[in-house]
Specification:
The structure is a single chain. By secondary structure, the protein is an alpha+beta fold. The chain is built from eight helices and ten strands. Strands 1-6-7-5 form a four-stranded antiparallel beta sheet, with no helix packed on it. Strands 2-3-4-8 form a four-stranded antiparallel beta sheet, covered by helices on one side. The protein has a two-stranded antiparallel ribbon with strand order 9-10. Strand 6 and strand 7 form a beta hairpin. The longest helix is centred in the last third of the chain and has 22 residues. It starts with a helix and ends in a 16-residue tail after the last helix.
């Protein structure tokens, strides 16, 4: 799933290529992906893009007073094309959800795709990004510079949930998902199941620093890469997430996994749980 660093890189890549360029045609291929109908997608035709920004995991492509807002969900992506096919795309069961063709150079544009059978990609056309429910409920952005240590501590105060779930809650912090929450907690040397309200002042500060360094480093690693290389870079840069059974790069212990019905987390026992193994079931607790 694209998270804050990948969406940030996507926004920068598209901003460099779309600013000032006009839309020739918009082809909505997947009806299920389109979540709004007024204004219509065709309202972008003839308009020039002004900027591309990000709200958490949402991409925001602005053209005048209209915003094309994309949420890529688990398997969505944006694919830049120097030469799009001449024939308009036909609706079907393939991965293509949306195609945007630019006026010049002729044939250039981008596709928005979604792999797999579970289709959760979302496309919105709005006059204000706050009209998108997922954007309206976002918490502060960890890289915006507006979230200080005291404000972060206030977010966690009284929070009874486990810290892994808190980090993934978009209404608490915008943009962190399953992969980078694993990475942040490993960097902070913290169990994913530790109750957020039980963190000491030192642990809060450690976690706050880990969020900043982990996300900033991931964004910097992706700087200047082509869109097709971003996913591979993300995978290669992860230290624990998706690396069950491999040695921890910090201490050499074996990276362990806890599986759930639709996801899994990875962690290092030595670095994060004082050597204790987390039980691999939905209501996992530290084994006594």
């Amino acid at each position: 799933m694209p998270e804050l660093p990948e969406v940030e890189s996507l926004s920068r890549f598209l901003a460099d290529r779309l600013a000032g360029r006009s839309v020739a045609r918009v082809h909505p291929v997947s009806v299920h992906a389109l979540k709004t109908y007024d204004p219509p997608l065709t309202a972008f035709e003839g308009r020039a893009f002004d900027e591309v920004t990000r709200h958490g995991k949402f991409l925001d492509l602005r053209a005048g007073d209209l915003h094309l807002v994309l949420h890529l969900a688990r398997a969505g992506w944006v694919r830049w094309k120097d030469k799009l096919p001449e024939a308009p795309p036909r609706p079907g069961k393939g991965p293509l959800a949306l195609r945007v063709r630019l006026e010049e150079p002729e044939g250039t544009g981008f596709d928005v795709t979604e792999a797999g059978t579970q289709k959760h990609l979302a496309v919105y056309v709005v006059r204000d990004p706050q009209e998108v429910p997922g954007v309206a409920r976002l918490g502060p952005d960890p890289l915006s510079g507006a979230l200080g240590l005291d404000a972060f501590a206030a977010l966690l105060a009284g929070e009874r949930r486990q810290i892994k779930g808190v980090l993934r809650d978009q209404s608490v912090l915008a943009g962190i998902g399953n992969a980078y929450s694993d990475e942040i907690l490993h960097t902070a040397r913290m169990s994913p199941f530790k109750p957020a309200a039980n963190l000491s002042e030192d642990e809060v500060a450690r976690l706050y620093a880990a969020i900043g360094t982990t996300l900033t480093d991931a964004v910097e690693r992706s700087r200047g890469l082509a869109l097709g290389d971003l996913k591979a870079e993300k995978k290669s840069g992860l230290r624990v997430h998706g690396r069950k059974g491999e040695p921890c790069p910090v201490c050499g212990d074996t990276i362990r996994e806890v599986s759930f019905s639709d996801s899994a987390l990875q962690y290092c026992p030595t670095c994060q749980t004082d050597g204790k193994i987390l039980a691999d079931r939905r209501l996992s607790r530290l084994l006594k």
